[in-house]
DNA sequence: CAAATTTGACCTGT
DNA sequence: ACAGGTCAAATTTG
C-alpha cells in the first residue's frame, strides 16, 4: 500500500521537469521529420522513451494522447525507496557529467570498498523496470524492442527457486563513459520462450546508438540504403555462432516499419549455455517447444524470418 | 593481443 | 546465515 498521493515537493518538481523534457523532445522529434539522419532519429527516440520511462517510474499515469508506450506488457517496478526520492543522476541532470563524488575523507587504500559500498547504495536508487521478451522459433522475437545498447556480461547466478540462472549485464562503456546502466536477464521457468529482462538505471553513455569515432579513419560505408543499418551497436560482439550473437545481443533494425514510438531495434537476451543443474527432480520434462540444446544446435535455424544482418566486421 | 566471458570468491541487505 | 548481486582472475574469443 504505497501512498502515491504523498508526492513530495521534489517529486512534483521532478515530474514537471520530466514532462517538460518529454514535451520538448517530442516537439523536436516531430520537427526533425524525415530529413534527419538515422542516427539523430534514434537518439531522439531514445530521449523520448527515456522520459516516458522516467515518468512511468514516477507512477505518472500517462495520458493516452501524449504518451503511448510500447504495446507490450511492461512491468514497471516502481523503485521503492524507503523514503528518499528516486533520483537518478543522469536523468535529472541530463548531463552525463554526473561527477564522481569527491572523496572527502582520506581513505586511501580502502577506496575500492568505499566505491563498492557507494555504488551499491546508489544503485538501489536507480530506476528499475522490467520487460518480458519472448522468442519463438519462427516468429522471431517479440517484445519491447528498444535495446540498442551494448552490454557486457559480468556475472551469472543461480537463483533460488528458479530453474535457470540469472545473468547480469552492464553497459559496455561503464568504465569509459561512466555509464551505470545494467540489466539482468532471467529465463522464465514456465515458458521456455519468455525471458524477463530487468533494467536498472538509464544510459548516460553518449554512444547509446551510434558514436562514429570522428578522428579515426573509419571506412565510411556509403551505402546509406534502406538496408538494415546495423550500426556500431554491438561493435565487437562475438559472432561465434549466430546463436551466440543472438543470445548475447541481437540487434536488428527493421527499416520499413514506421512505428512511431516503437523502436525498430531488438535485442535478444542471453541464455545460459549449460544449466548444470543438480537433479532437482526432473527439470527436463518441460514441454520443449524447442529446447535450449536446440539453441546450440547449429542445425536449428532460428533466423528464418528476421533479416540476418551479421554485422559487418570492423577490423583494424 | 585486446576485448568479452566465465566462474568462484566476495560483499551487502534481509 | 542466506540469497542476490558484483568483482576480478583466468580463460576464451575474435
TrEMBL record:
Subcellular location: Nucleus
Annotated PROSITE patterns: WRKY
InterPro entries: WRKY_dom, WRKY_dom_sf, WRKY_plant
UniProt xrefs under SUPFAM superfamilies: WRKY DNA-binding domain
Keyword Nucleus: yes
Pfam families: WRKY
Parts of the chain that traverse the membrane: none
Domain WRKY: 140-203
Keywords: DNA-binding, Nucleus, Transcription, Transcription regulation
Region feature (Disordered): 87-112
Protein name: Probable WRKY transcription factor 53
Lineage: Eukaryota, Viridiplantae, Streptophyta, Embryophyta, Tracheophyta
